[in-house]
Every structure is written in structure tokens, then in C-alpha cells.
């Protein structure tokens, strides 16, 4: 017998796989359904996690300063008591009031210091544009040129980050007299 040469117009079809037995197909289908259900649950859990994390970030931002504010409330109460006392203060009571206000100021500074706030000490230091804001210059022979002559407003840092630069007057050499 002679073999038939393949015709270029005919296409060969791959033989269909042998049908598996119904029990095996059902077991594979059940396993596929189980994997699909696990995937759907995992995807839902992940979506819930993302929503919960976003909600927690929002709440953390809203209430980040709650503990600091709780520490400041007694100081606010003390200022209100000082104002009430100031209305009736005379003579020795006035000096006692001034001492009380100074104690409240120290209490506030301590709370802010605990929270990481630092004052920038500028008097007599070399002018640093990263820490100081020059509001003017003053001719003087007492302080070297480029140093802080006078601090107008205190500057503050929160840990290593500048919150507010110190407003300063910078010393400059006196002009030569003709």
C-alpha cells in the first residue's frame, strides 16, 4: 500500500483528549471551585484590610495631638485662674500673680519640651539662614559682623525639624567715618 501524501489544503486536527471519567472530573471541578472560593475570600479580606488601614490612618492624623492637648488643658485652666486673680490684684497680690504666671509659663515649657519642642537660642550666634530670619541689620562694633545682634522672636524646632525660624537683627560693621 502506498502512503497518501498530505494535501496542503487539508488541515490536521489534534486528537481530542480521551474523556476522563466523571468522578475524576467532578473531583477536579470541586478542587477548582475550592481554589476560586479561597481566592475570592482572600481578595475580600485584602480589600477590607486596605479600607481599615485607610480609616486608621485618617483617625491617627485627626487625633495625633490628643495626648499633647490633654497635657495642655491644665495649663489653660491655670491661665484662666490667673486672669480671674488679675482682676482683683493689688500690691503684694500683683507680685504673687506675676510669680504664678511665671510658674504657668514654666509648666507650659516643660510640656512642650517633653513633646520634643526646642527653643532656638540665637543671641550672639553666627547668623544661620536655616534657623534665623533676618528682619534688619544693626551697625555695631560690640558683636562681630554676621552674628545675631538681637533676637526679636524666638524660633522653635520639633526634634530636628524647624517649626519657626527665629526673627533676628544681624550685626554689621559700622560704616567708616569720612
Average pLDDT across residues? Answer: 83
Strand order of the largest sheet: 1-4-5
The residue ranges in which pLDDT falls below 50 over 5 or more consecutive positions are none
User: What does the largest sheet look like?
Assistant: 3 strands, antiparallel
Q: What is the 3D shape?
A: elongated
- Radius of gyration, in Å, reads 39 Å
Element layout with pairings:
Layout: H1 22-62, H2 66-87, H3 92-114, E1 117-120, E2 132-139, E3 148-153, E4 155-158, E5 161-164, E6 166-172
Parallel strand pairs: 2-6
Antiparallel strand pairs: 1-4, 3-6, 4-5
Helix pairs in contact: 2-3
List keywords for this structure.
178 residues, alpha+beta, Nucleotide Exchange Factor Grpe, Chain A, domain 2, 3-stranded antiparallel sheet, 3-stranded mixed sheet, 3 helices
